[in-house]
Protein 1
Amino acid sequence: MLRSAADSPQQTAGVQSRPERTSGTGNDSKATASLVLWAGIAFSALFTLLIWALDFRLASIELLPDTGASWYYWKLPSPTFWTRATSWGFYLVHQFAIWAIIYYAQSYRKHRYTKGLHKANIWALTVNAAFIFLHLIQTHVWYDGLAQDTPIFSSQGAVIVLLVWVLLMENNRRGQFFGRPAPFSKEVVRFARTYHGYFFAWAIVYTFWFHPMVSTSGHLIGFFYMFLLLLQGSLFYTRIHTNRWWTFALEGTVLVHGTLVAVMQGNGLWPMFLFGFAGILVVTQMYGLGLSLPFRLLILGAFVGSALLVYGNFGWDRLNEIVRIPLIEYASVFVLAGLFWLGLRITRTVRHMRSA
């Protein structure tokens, strides 16, 4: 997943090319991206632990009663100028800083994929780390996030579109259905790959600032995942950014996060999230790993056997839950591709009219 920031011209054409061995720049770091990746994962885990350890300081904050699925519980009953100014102000600075780094990397530097870090990677890592610390401070001083002024579904929707965008972007490499690509035009896939970094950066940074850093189980898992996505978004133009096992792990984390949150909510819907996201893994995602046919059949068998076992206990009338999430995501891929195609066609028509 999540080849955020910027892709090389060869990759944006929809063909996976072998990363070059040289960076083409003379100011790049000698630190390997793989080392930074492991350090970043450790940082993400330790910072998640820090959020949990400091949560006692937020115990005195009084919140309004929970009124249902459309209500976000973790926001102040009486927001002030400063609670809004800090949450929105820090978010906007963070957002535009990351966008500026992406634009710089794509427009002003002819990077190639390398083992080491580029200057832009160091900038992105520094900016993201600084705002992670700043968000923790902001939570403990002013508490509120963007949830105070935006619908709860906006954050969820941003992540869903991100996941759907990945399915479109990876269509040519791993296929859409059992290794076979959907009939999307090369122009649409190229557009998705070229500009995905800007949308991914928005979806991740917006979701990151949507929530205060509180230590419910769902928040802790969610923030750990956001840290990993910020890390991935900082490693553009490095080989680790396109490493198929790392990107697969990021996609798989959605399965773990969604299932565990559903378990913690106690609403009995965890099988829908588990087998829904696992269904996408079986139908699409595992085909990007180069696995042998026997191993893929083993994974498919484990999926089918586990589903039969679980729904044999929960009731066969709920078996349709397995297809709900996949149907939504696959339908959304075609909708997103259609929107891109329409936008590109309109743009081409307007340019033709202007040049006529």
Protein 2
Amino acid sequence: MNKKTKLIIIFQLIVAMFFLNIPQKAKASVYVSAQSAILMEQGSGRVLFEKEAYKPRRIASITKIMTAILAIESGKMDEMVKVSEKAVRAEGSSVYLKLDEKIKLEDLVYGLMLRSGNDAAVAIAEHVGGSLDGFVYLMNQKAEEIGMKTTHFENPHGLDDHEKHFSTAYDMAILTRYAMNNKKYAKIAGTKVHRAPNPTESWERKWDNKNRLLTELYEYCTGGKTGFTKRAKRTLVTTASKEQLNLIAVTLNGPDDWNDHIQMYEHGFKTYNLAEVLPKGSLEGIKEEMYKKKVYLPQGFNYPIKAGEKDLFEVEYKMKKPDERWKMGEDVPNIVGKATVYFKNQPVKNLSIYYKQETPKEKQSFFELFRSLFTLIIGVKSDG
């Protein structure tokens, strides 16, 4: 080996050692193909994974989650909807409604969610909102109400016919979290097949859910909504449950979205467990004498944590100062305090603390006990 060759080898070794000592970025625990993605825990809203989750993008037919929940909350699900020409002419995916036919609003919501019917979306919007514009107003009003801060709706279906129709992966997870608290929505979103009357034909309509994660690919999937337009590309919202952990996944512009969701779910179920931070029922540790064994939480609080995070919780109690009348058992309010749960020094939940009111039966029992003691002291027999 000549001197020149030795120098080349030494130089290559030095370069290799230099690059080995440069701090490397930690590899992401999950790889997703989507431009934007998020994994959120349903109960707490904790974000377990995110990738550009707060960037506004086109959302295509996952728009219909908002359309569905507004229809359900309208209280009109049993009403019959007359299909307009505007609904019949809606472009894209369809449940093939016919002009002037009458169909139950509930069936339209199934057609909307399972088959992504744009004609169903228009028919729903016109019936619930009075007009498309009226319904879009309701959509944006609801978005503001539930905390979708980077969302603007301009139609009930998500087609590319409006420029300012957008949301974020995070906002769509917020919407899904809200919607999944509605039992009717959860049932519809998790339905694999729905049949509806077909008044002009001899056969009934049969709608199979387009969500392959639910129907064939992932055993823990509980529902969701698919979407696609040329400009938005593939969008997908799904939900999944395993061992009391309920998760929400959203991807925007995801060419391999089925696998993206499975990867996120597997990461979530493997990495996180649901910890009971505050149990439901009687609340211990309140120092005020009047409140001892008298205060409770009607609902407990659970939070998803990774290994080693269990000791990162703190709970702060703030109780109302007892009024003199309260000590006599009079006019005690139902809510007498607040418990604030902190995780990593950040507030994550506020819970109202309730006071156990004496029932008329309990008050009577106390009176009977007092009377018995009184008669015993004065030596009067209970029979007179």
Protein 3
Amino acid sequence: MKKTAKIFNALAIIILVSTLAVCYAFLLNETRTEAAASRDAREDAHGMNYVIDPETDQSYLIWTDEYLSGTSSDGSWTHNIYYQSIDINNPKIASNANKLTLISAPEAQEPASASFSKSGSLIVTFEDGNKAGKYTLAQRYAIYKSQLKDGIPTGKLTAVKKYNTKKTTILMGGHSGHASSTDTKHVVFYSEGWINGGGVNGLGTGNDVRVCTISGSGKILHQRKVAVGNKTRDWWPVTASSSDRSLLVWQRYVKKHTYSLLCFAVYDPDTNKIISKHIKTNLHMKYYSYNAVYLKNIDRYLISFTQSDGSGTLLLVDQNGNIAAVKKGLPSFVREASPAVYSDSSDTAILCFAQGDRSICYYRVTKNSITHTASDSSDSQWSYRGTSGFFDSDISKVSFATLGRHNAELYVYSVPDQAKALSSKDRAYCSTRTQQ
């Protein structure tokens, strides 16, 4: 009996240990799976910009990543800002080994947002963890111009006002800023403060949004509050500019709900005045999934956003903030993605957006109308790290530069003839995607 009892006890212990081991392995796997699912993809890279110098016609991609450096052992991000020139008619993406460094400093400088003024002044703004002290972050910037040799652009950028933690700080504690430019000035729309809880996965929200006007040489001219108050939580500000005014777009937290409200204002950087402000309580928006562009030939702003039900909406806005046209029921717009824009001398602009999980769509926009269609599926999925599109010179190809898991990637599409036609018919077309 004693021997049998010992054997039984031994078997029981073995079974118990085995069961616990299986349970532990299952739980560990579940934990890893949850961790992977909730991992912030922006840790790899964040913020992709396509910009063109109106003085030289030289195009650039400007973005932030930590593909080479990797995250610090304490979990801090280490993004630097990189760039490359790009030929829109024969685009190639630089490898990690060949990309050019624009700004490199301790902690992360991300997400980069870039814009050229008509005079050829380039601003790059970003939230910066370097020497931010008790504030943790600071909104900072630097000013550049295209480098020329014998009057021809070399594809490199030269600093006009170098990044400096003391001399190029917009605000300590500032973050999430984006830039646009009028003919002569740069506008940086940025957040200040952070409140825990709410937002995406309950991670928290920004608190206030402010705007700053900077000269082409890098001098701060104006600062002002746009949405500041104890009863509101506003953040993720984006902007687009005409020759003399700027559209400011942001999201407002709604307590006990998982959607935000779309907010926008028209700002005059010359007078530092808000022309109009709009809080759209009837537009329930998915966090971060919106953008704004200015269409020069029709003198309109176009706001794209995804509603809380997953459908996409386009708002056409004039220089005073009035809505000229609305198009609802579209595929969702990709988070942190800018469209390709063709805005020539005609009365129609052509745009191509990354939409849904695996598609692109073309749109034609006039002063009072928006035409569209649904998108086709593709073999690759868009990320929310950052995407920016551009057309070639004759609108035969459209390209999207996007930030992948291990490097910047480029996707090129053939543009169908129907999408190029400046027709008033309510059609738009999507193309088959090929990775380069």
